Amino acid sequence: MRPRIASKNNILAGKARQRGFTLFELAVVASVIAVLAVVLLGRMEVVQQEAERVAVQQTLLALRTGLRMQVLELYASDRQNQLPALAGQNPIDWLAEKPANYLGAYSAPEMEKLPQSHWFFDRSNAELIYILNRSNSFGASYSELLRFKVSLRQASATRTQPSTPVDAPQVALIQLGEAGGLK
Predict the structure, then answer these.
(1) Number of CB atoms found within 10 A of residue 160's CB
(2) CA angle, 93 as apex, 87 and 97 as ends, to 5°?
(3) How many CB atoms lie within 10 A of CB 56?
(4) For residues 32 and 159, what is the distance between their CA atoms, to the nearest angstrom?
(5) Per-domain residue ranges for the chain?
(6) Closest CA to 56 of 115, 127, 131
(7) Are strands 134-135 and 141-142 parallel, antiparallel or unpaired?
(8) DSSP state string for 135-176
(9) How many helices (H) and strands (E) does the chain have?
């Protein structure tokens, strides 16, 4: 009868060993999960940067459309002499709704204290500024500024379109510098 008890213990001991993961299997699973997490985090950073770029471009498109509407309104009401006043205005004021990430107008902003991925208007230079979020997922971060300004230029006779008068000034929202690669 004793051999029977010993065989029952061996069977129970074998089943107990088969219930859990071995240390090697656990290490393999952990390393696969770690590799997948690193790939996912790297891809998420690329997607976030692309989303920020598209959001900035959409806001610029809305601002340029608002500027066109202001110019057309001045022409329609025969107030072309007020076009130079557009150069000092805050372009955000021309939008029906301000962007959710618009901080407001500042006279002397402390750039270090302003959050990234936000717009603000610098009254001292009459510039609309966007603070890019260029954070790195591994700790190092810096920000880059995109600067925009309403520009007023006197049109030349060779560059005008047939529908505009020769002496009509051109008003545009231009980017200052080449930071960020946006136009």
Answers:
(1) 14
(2) 150
(3) 20
(4) 61
(5) 54-181
(6) 131
(7) antiparallel
(8) E-TTS-EE--EEEEEEEEEEPPTTT--TTS-TTPEEEEEEEE
(9) 2, 7
Query: Residue 5 and residue 2: Cα distance in Å, rounded?
Result: 5
Q: Across residues 158-174, what is the average pLDDT?
A: 64
Query: Any residues with CB less than 8 A from the CB of 54 and at least 6 apart, and which?
Result: none
In this structure, is the dihedral angle defined by the CA atoms of residues 179, 60, 75 and 150, taken in order, positive or negative?
negative
Contact 94, 63 (CB under 8 A): yes
pLDDT for residue 6 is more than 80: no
Confidence of residue 139 (pLDDT cuts 50, 70, 90): very low
Judged by DSSP in three states, 111 sits in: helix
pLDDT digits (tens, 9 = 90+) for 32-42: 999 999 999 88
- Predicted structure pTM score: 0.68
Listing DSSP states for 5-67 in one string gives HHHHHHHHHHHHHHSS--HHHHHHHHHHHHHHHHHHHHHHHHHHHHHHHHHHHHHHHHHHHHH
Backbone angle region of 180, left / alpha / beta, with phi > 0 → left and psi within -120 to 50 → alpha: left
Distance CA 106, CA 70 (A): 23
Q: How far apart are the first and last CA of the chain?
A: 90
